[in-house]
Amino acid sequence: MSGSQPVGGAVRRLRAALGLSQSELADRAGIAAGTMSMIENDRISATAEAIEALSTVLDCSPDYLRRDNGDLLAGRPWLRAYADAPSRTVESVVADSSTAIDAAQRLDLRFVPDVLPIFSGDPNNDADIEEFTAQVRVAAGLGEDDVVKNMVRTAERLGCVVLPMESELGRHLGMSNRVDGTAVIRVARSNDGSTHYVPGDRQRFTVAHELGHLVMHFEQRPPDSAVEAARIEKQAHRFAAAFLAPADPLIDDLNRIGGRVTLSALAQLKEAWGVAIKALVVRFQHLGVIEQDHARSLYKQISARRWNKSEPVHVPNEESVWLAKALKKRFGSEGDPFAGASVALGLGRSYFERWAMWAVENQADAVAEVVQLGFGKRIDNQSLNEESRGQVLRMPVR
After folding, report:
1. CATH, domain range 1-71
2. In this protein, which residues make up the domain named HTH cro/C1-type (predicted)?
3. What is the mean pLDDT of each run of 10 residues along the chain (398 residues)?
4. Is 334 helix (H, G, I), strand (E, B) or coil?
5. Which class for 378: exposed (0-12), middle (13-18), buried (19 or more C-beta within 10 A)?
6. I want to staple 178 with a disulfide (CB 3.0 to 4.6 A). Which of 75, 337, 353, 372 is the partner?
7. CB-CB contact of 35 with 113 (8 Å)
């Protein structure tokens, strides 16, 4: 194809997805900065030579840029501007998510049906959140007493597309929004233990937290103040805790091991439910099982043992499966699904690898005092020793 053509939408999205500024892209493509700005805003059409140069930098074919790749309708993340993360990084993740959904649509991949319930209660009422969370668990195929064995795949079964991020966004391990109506959750992958270790329990809670945003704040605009941001974060935290550790079964397990909230008991409950010890302290305080002074004492003990960053009991990292399976089903006969998708769409293989490969390694050596136990097995009377039996206390939820 010869002549000039508008390509602004595709260029702008891929540039942002790769974390490049407009001037950086212009410099690498050998295009004047002013011309680059006009190309991105479709004020002028790009020449064939410019399209060729841009496609090389953006790792795609010229035909990919020439297609009508207008921006998809993407909602904004619910956290207020991610103030502690570079704005370019946030924009990069949003653009990358849009590129992934656009690619899946153009490749005619089969999405999992969206069965996410939408919250209609009072988000400031904890009882309403607990009741609604039970409904979402039912939609995910979980029984009242079931442990969430894999939070990432549970989110996928509900119709979310879960993709890894290279690193945290400031203090945030995750991000969620909707792209062209599709619920997308991004969560930081765990690389090598020396530079970027993300415990499995933190990944699980992050995915549950972002799921909370998707189902509770579906029609709510991103917060425009720190107070509003803190309020909806608290709501998503409550949802995540209730989703991963439903109240009655959690308290039943506590009672089976003596009914006292101690570090030893919390470690056993973490083994069973895959929830961090500190998160369980918060959960029991919210449920009225322990008072503030008790929680404060536990936090001091946790700090004294240096568990703030390295808790005992290893919870495995998780990864998504939908995209890899969908690509294999669509291009498996060609031997290399990533290569097949790349050729069919004209988008570099590196994009598909970034979206589908989590590169999770065994991190046991990177965590202090790690104990590899039978994660996901509920506590039962058969597993208790004689000393712990007979100490059961019934603690009603308040």
Report:
1. 1.10.260.40
2. 11-65
3. 74 95 96 95 93 97 84 60 67 93 95 96 95 98 96 98 85 88 92 69 96 90 80 94 98 97 97 97 97 97 93 94 94 85 96 86 39 61 46 32
4. helix
5. middle
6. 75
7. no
